[in-house]
Amino acid sequence: MGKKEILTKAEIHHFGVEIVHSQMQRDGFEILGVNPAMTVTPQIVARKKGQLCFVIVRTDFYPNRGSLANDQEFFYNLEHAEKNNALCYFAGVRLCNAAAADAGDEEGMSLPVKGADFYVEYEGLKIMTTLDRMQVRDGQGLMTPDEAEVKPTPRRSISETIRSAASQK
Question: Which residue from 3, 112, 142, 159 could staple onto 7, CB 3.0 to 4.6 Å apart?
Fold first, then answer.
């Protein structure tokens, strides 16, 4: 049997960018630019409802999932987006060799064989931010969580909720 040709890291990354790009189009984003090069960030520049969006895509093969390398990469991308008045999103993609998965071959699931079918695990865009950058919208506009005095709502038990609903009848 001949040796199977394996996808390169760049080819795996390119495939992940294609997956995210296609999903963004289906979700109504206007795609302004796509660059699947691993050395370029962001990989996708888009707009939705007038808001500029930068999307950082990382793709890996089972059992791993695409992720940012470190905090430095996270903050670099977040600050780059902010300088351009854009929202910054992360898209982590995991690929898995479908034939191996169907056969229950755990080791083979991690083999990115060229021309093979793949299962894709992608949970959508995740907004990148930090607590000090978050804002809360109320009837007056935007403010930080401290300004809005956001407090957790006390949880009630199911029996308390039922009693409350019954007393209102």
Answer: 112
